[in-house]
Amino acid sequence: MAETAIFDRPLPVGSKGRDSVGWWGVLCLIATEASLFAYLLFSYYYIGVQRGPAWLPEIHPKLTLSGPNTLILLSSSVAVWWGEEGIKHGRRAQHLTGIGIGIVLGTAFLIIQGFEWKAKTFGLNTSAYGSLFYTVTGFHMAHVFVGVAVLLVVWIWALIGYFSPRHHARVSVAAIYWHFVDVVWLFVFSTFYLSPYVLA
Question: Which positions of the chain have pLDDT values less than 70?
């Protein structure tokens, strides 16, 4: 009888907060992806310790594009958070605006990162540094692309009135993933653009 009652309960799909299957699913995804980036960044520091400053093609990497691009990505995180707060409090216009700004800023980040790649004097096959740089930043760009796609789907669903203050778990799941992508970039930016100034 007790087992019947347990299996009779509705699945928590689409419910709020931590009761959502999507919530726990995205946390597991984040744990997996965080491990991937941790291993990649560990490779950078491991080789850096072995070879010293001589392995760096740029002792002082230019922050002309990467600096503003970092601010753009962090701003997108604030916009997505603001949009998520909008749907939680029934403010549909705020929700649509916040998520929309997040999409635009995320797309701008990808475009600027493309220019950053093009401006580099080294390539994927030039050295171990070049291989790591393009692999790590490339993986991150792929995650940003997926994040923008997810936010776009959420924005379209919001546009047709799919969400409400009681039904917004998918918005929270998308926002969590987006914040994760932004936090990862802080580690990537610190590793490739700031650490040479300190360690070289």
Answer: 1-20, 200
- For residue 84, count other CB atoms closer than 10 A to its CB: 23
Sign of CA dihedral 178, 150, 82, 71: positive
164 DSSP β-pair partners: 167
Judged by DSSP in three states, 165 sits in: coil
Q: Which amino acid is at 45?
A: Y
Cα R_g (the chain), whole angstroms: 20
Q: 141, 138, 134, 81: which is closest to 106 by C-alpha?
A: 141
**Cα–Cα distance between 152 and 36 in angstroms, integer?**
25
Question: What pLDDT, on the 0 to 100 scale, is given for residue 5?
Answer: 39
Question: Which residues 6+ apart lie within 8 Å of 42 measured at CB?
Answer: none
- Least Cα distance to 109 among 194, 189, 38, 29 occurs for 189
| Residues contacting residue 62 through CB under 8 Å, at least 6 positions apart | 119
Q: What is the pLDDT of residues 49-86, one digit of tens each?
A: 888 888 888 888 999 999 999 999 999 999 999 999 99
pLDDT at residue 140, rounded to an integer: 97
